[in-house]
Amino acid sequence: MSNSLHPMLNVAIKAARAAGALINRAALDVESVRVAQKQVNDFVTEVDQASERAIIETLLTAYPQHSILAEESGNEHGTKGSDYVWIIDPLDGTTNFIHGFPVYCVSIALAYKGKIEQAVVYDPSRNDLFTATRGRGAYLNERRIRVSKRSQLKDCLISTGFPFRRGDNFKQYMNMLGDVMQRTAAVRRPGAAALDLAYVAAGFSDGFFESGLSIWDVAAGSLLVSEAGGLVGNFTGEADFLEQKECMAANPRIYGALIPVIGKYSKFATAGEKADVRQAIDSGADEESAQADQSDAE
Length: 298
Fold this sequence. Notes:
Helix content is 39%, strand content 24%. The protein is built from 8 helices and 14 strands. The protein has a 7-stranded mixed β-sheet with strand order 3-4-5-6-7-8-9, sandwiched between helices.
């Protein structure tokens, strides 16, 4: 199959595998990896940085006129203003990695004039390679993948990501999580959004939602989902989501079913929906306070 791949996708695969080799070597002695904290609960390691350097070097050796947008180094590399922009997350799931929890990946996407055209998500611990080229379908290890066929939310396995930064609206998220949990078979929180999206594309899970994500978290995974027959957008279902910091993906039937459940929690929800959410949160807080008072009295 490799001979039929788009040449830019082949270069992205080469870059992802080079980064994956570095990550796998470091994983053999993860306790010796140097870790820095960008902000509370947001970590970066020397492995993130080495992985990013290996990816950028591979990409720019092949395409020196292209631009780079990377999680750790931003847009300081490559040719500014190019129509071609490589969007890179060198190690999605860093917190998992530094704990030896084997759920993390390399994510590389190529945007042309703002539209994602090539995508690679590589899980080095399992040697799973997810790839997509716009219009050519999505693949896992050279096997064509499709989103799941489940049509009822109650039968679905949904993945998500918990808020972890100061300033995140934890109470609103817990209400949203509760709404989803009551309507589905199960909810999982693996800890690497790019891999979550790849799993939706492969049909391993039926849907995904998370807020607070950056473009490098979702760029590659979003093309995998759409090329596997799924839908991806913000919480209200709009497709222009890449830089809106909220992402929802699923097969088409489940996507439609999730919109009324989590759409009201979107930053783009109507004023009435936002008021209903605030009221639900406030009533929940009042109930917790009453329960605490009752417990103290006993």
